Amino acid sequence: MNALVTPSPLSGTVRAIPSKSEAHRALICAALSDKPTRVVCRSTSEDIDATLGCLAALGAHIERDGESYLVHPIEDSQMDGALLDCHESGSTLRFLLPVAATMGSCTFTGAGRLSKRPMEPLADTLRAHGATIDADDGLPVHVRGPLAAGRFDIPGNISSQFITGLLLAAPLLNEPVEIRVSEPIESRPYIDLSLSVIHAFGIDIATIHENGFTSYRVPEQASYRSPGNFEVGGDWSNAAFWLSAGALSDEGVAVEGLSLSSKQADRVVAGALALLGAQVMRNANGAAARRGDLHGARIDVSSCPDLVPAIAPVSALAKGRTTICGASRLRLKESDRLAAIADVLGTLGANVCVDDDALVFEGVEHLHGGTVDAHNDHRIAMMAAIAATRAADPVHIFGAECVAKSYPGFFDDFAKLGGLVMKEV
Fold first, then answer.
1. Residue 219 has pLDDT above 80, yes or no
2. I need a surface site. Which of 18, 136, 156, 234 has the fewest CB within 10 A?
3. Is the peptide bond before 118 cis (omega within 30 degrees of 0)?
4. How far apart are CA 142 and CA 186, in angstroms?
5. Could you give the domains of the chain?
6. CA distance 141 to 162
7. Contact 387/345 with Cβ under 8 angstroms?
8. DSSP string of 106-159?
């Protein structure tokens, strides 16, 4: 699908979709629990569907019931030889590889750039604890247990998803586990989110900081206990695009259904937009943004790299220089996002360049229209649509269907906020 976006500012109120990050974690914990759990998640996406499919392959039985999933836990998994298709979901692969290593043997596969995303540090620490991990240049990955307890050593500067995968698997080993992570730790808020969800399923994991390491200690005989119901919170990552659209609009955009106390890393979008001069409002039910005196700023995204495509259009239109730094891991996403952002926004008239691990913008007064490619990356497609609201001429987005990876209804909500979009199948 391609999308033709005619410039028009967005305004109004939209409800946040459920957090993909939180849904992955809750569904996995539910599948590992002692009894069924109702996970309230009113919409889905390709990534969430990938996790659901892999959990079913491991032996869970999951029913869709209105706006919820009823998850019947895995019992005596008979998964030997099972195929787990992660599609393009890095979270699904990295979270479930350690879990599967506690259960038997299976094969993980996927699509797109998933086979190019780093896996070796996680595979190495699993091998050190008895698992067999075989891979031929990426995917497929064959895993066979058993996995032994003890101390797992993992670097913290590559992917927080490695740590989350180990945290999810640790309670299944029925013995004390320590996960020792070397500093610095990238995207630490995502680990905090994992700890929060695991806690909701009855497990308290101690966190110890010492001598340049952070250790997560899982007690002996820890086991997942269903809370009965778990409601997935609103997604700050995708709400960030609407708030950025509001920062480019005189009337502004409000997003409902967001928790200000959420552990999600991208909750800091409100602060980032305020640094850029937008007028940002917060309340108990969400946040809103509208245009202010936009100006350049320096923003470190080492803890929240997914935020960059959302704030990039605002950065492109803010007076002066904006530097978004600490973004090296964007090269390892669904696209090389540093290059893709510079390509798409540069095509639309932004003055932007890549400088090592940073994007540097010299603000322009307006963008112009043109034809851009989404780079098969959901966040790049959404970024292009938001940028188009402040362009002088229409923007044609090739490959816009990739928004389904995280937000299938993105263009529908875009239109509800006054966006002028024509889908071309």
1. yes
2. 136
3. no
4. 27
5. 2-17+234-424 (3.65.10.10), 20-231 (3.65.10.10)
6. 15
7. yes
8. EEEE--GGGGGS--HHHHHHHHTTT-EEEESSSS-EEEE-----EEEEEESSS-
Dihedral class, residue 118 (left if φ above 0, else alpha if ψ from -120 to 50, else beta): beta
The catalytic residue among 235, 266, 306, 343 is 306
Burial 344-379 (b: 16+ CB within 10 A, else e): bbebbbbebebeebbbbbebbeebebbebbbbbbbb
The pLDDT > 70 percentage for the chain reads 99
> What was the pLDDT predicted at 135?
79
In the residue annotation, 306 being an active-site residue is answered as yes
The confidence band for 117, taking pLDDT boundaries of 50, 70 and 90, is confident
Quote the pTM value.
0.95
Residue recorded with tokens 């955009």 = 253
pLDDT at 104 over 90: no
Tokens of 329: 């891991």
What are 238-259's pLDDT values in tens digits? 999 999 999 999 999 999 999 9
Contact 155, 121 (CB under 8 A): yes
Burial of 420 from C-beta contacts in 10 A (0-12 / 13-18 / 19+):
middle
DSSP state of 19: P
Over its C-alpha atoms, the chain yields an Rg (Å, rounded) of 21
Which residue from 85, 35, 80, 79 is spatially nearest to 59, judged by alpha carbons? 79
Of the candidates 304, 266, 330, which has an alpha carbon nearest to the alpha carbon of residue 186? 304
Per-residue tokens: 135? 């891979």
What is the arithmetic mean of pLDDT over 378-399? 97
Closest CA to 246 of 217, 271, 281, 218: 281
pLDDT of residue 224: 97
Token pair 């780079």 is found at 375
Residue 138's pLDDT is: 81
